[in-house]
């Protein structure tokens, strides 16, 4: 009498079931990045000089960013005039992406500079938290620029 073995599923069926389970857990299809597309939300722009917030540099503006699948970033913040142009690179996890962007045409000219940071994707809230910063250390003073936002697709 032949031994009674449990049925063996082909590997591709098992992999497909695992992929479907992962897709439903993250809200995104497996392998699909949540980052390419149009993002928008209110962003806060701040400058800290020598440990003190520069009130003249502070602004809150609507922000629209487009991240294309090839890694290009373009965007604008109409209330303060800032235009964004740069690139993305993969982050430390699949829910994070690195940004390297240069701002131009900002009404507060000191913001016309290069920024680095991340967008961290939250599948539960379906939002991306943007954190960009740029630092400059000069004689007798340190300048710290930051841009923060919660964005939606």
Largest beta-sheet details: 8 strands, antiparallel, barrel
Can you give the helix content as a percent range?
A: 10-25%
**Derived structural class:** mainly beta
* Number of beta-strand segments: 9
Strand residue content:
over 45%
Q: Output the strand order for the largest sheet.
A: 1-3-4-5-6-7-8-9
Query: Which segments are poorly predicted (pLDDT under 50) over 5 or more consecutive residues?
Result: 7-30
Report on the structure:
Helix content is 10%, strand content 53%. It has 153 residues and is mainly beta. β3 (59-67) and β4 (72-77) form a beta hairpin. The model is unreliable at 7-30 (pLDDT under 50).
Summarize this structure briefly.
The protein is mainly beta and 153 residues long.
What is the topology?
Blueprint lengths: L10 H16 L10 E13 L2 E2 L5 E9 L4 E6 L4 E9 L5 E9 L9 E9 L4 E12 L2 E12 L1
Antiparallel strand pairs: 1-2, 1-3, 1-9, 3-4, 4-5, 5-6, 6-7, 7-8, 8-9
Question: Which descriptors apply to this entry?
Answer:
globular, 1 helix, 153 residues, 9 strands
């Amino acid at each position: 009498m032949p031994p009674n073995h449990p049925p063996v599923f082909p590997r591709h069926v098992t992999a497909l079931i695992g992929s479907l389970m992962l897709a439903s857990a993250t809200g995104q299809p497996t392998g699909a990045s949540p980052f390419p597309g149009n993002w928008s939300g209110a962003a806060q722009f701040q400058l800290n000089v020598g440990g003190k917030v520069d009130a003249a540099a502070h602004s809150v503006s609507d922000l629209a960013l487009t991240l294309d699948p090839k890694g290009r970033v373009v965007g604008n913040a109409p209330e303060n005039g800032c235009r964004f142009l740069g690139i993305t690179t993969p982050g430390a996890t699949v829910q994070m992406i690195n940004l390297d962007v240069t701002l131009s045409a900002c009404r507060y000219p000191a913001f016309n500079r290069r920024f680095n940071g991340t967008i961290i994707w939250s599948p539960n809230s379906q939002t991306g938290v943007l954190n960009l910063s740029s630092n400059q250390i000069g004689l007798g003073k340190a300048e710290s620029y930051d841009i923060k936002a919660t964005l939606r697709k």
